[in-house]
Fold this protein.
Amino acid sequence: MSSKNDRALRFYNEVLGLERLHYGIWLSEDELSIEKLKEAQERYENYIIDNIPENVKTILDVGCGTGILTKRLISFGYHVEGLSPDIHQKRIFTENISAPFHHLAFENFSKTDQYDCMIMSESAQYISIEKLFKNAKRSLKKNGYLMICDYFVLKNASGELSKSGHDYEAFMDHIKNAEFTIVSEDDLTERVTKTLDLGKNFVEKALLALEIGTEKIRDRHPNISRFLLRLFKKKIEKFNQQIQLLDSCEFIKNKTYRFILMQANS
Ligand SMILES: C[S@@+](CC[C@H](N)C(=O)[O-])C[C@H]1O[C@@H](n2cnc3c(N)ncnc32)[C@H](O)[C@@H]1O
């Protein structure tokens, strides 16, 4: 687990050139562009920072990605540590940030009584609910805060979008059982989905470019084209299913994107 290497996140980082690995909070008037996505991602980080309770000094950034948020938190004077099981993120983080980095999955993290606050920015979905609360409770100081910003799966969700993320109701039920109290909650769903619209635009344009680029070959060699289509049928079907993940209407139907701030009961 400690050498985990997330290829999807590497794609965003290395191919699309995005330093940040999270959605973003968009304004309704924003056009769909990479520049606006970067602004939305920065707005999202500001939102997180603005919501950190006043007395917090020490923070664990759980699933810290490339460490952009960690860096910003440090610039605001917080004492921050990063954690990620991803070997590629470890390299980027340690090259750019002089803060402690824990290279492991949060499920295996066992520090006791260390932090005033833990931030899980789009990383809670990767951590089993049981371990998430158990390890958070143990590593937080008395009455410490757990801040989660992530998407969850709604009741009766179906299709590809029901396959990733924790079940929202089960997660909320677990908060009480795990002896945390909700301090505040915000539904950000409608404000983040333009990230998906942008992704969908990007894929559709790439497909159109492929279609135009291969037109001549398809016209000249129709039999070979049909053969290749048959050969890659399964892959094409899988790709069409995956594209559903970028459909913002489907996302709104099946998912909810939440900010949740909790405090550990003493
Ligand atoms: C979508 S990225 C979010 C990164 C960053 N927090 C941000 O907001 O840009 C998910 C992060 O969770 C990390 N992650 C995946 N599984 C994890 C686990 N079991 N424990 C802790 N972090 C995990 C990934 O390596 C990655 O850093």
